[in-house]
Sequence to fold (34 residues):
Amino acid sequence: MLQILLFIPILTQLWYHLGFVHVNRLPRISIINI
Fold:
């Protein structure tokens, strides 16, 4: 259980990083519209 609780922050950081990279791949106009 403790291992899962410690692993969740790592997953969230990975998802935020992947989402940030994915947004950077989109045109800047799309980012401004969001």
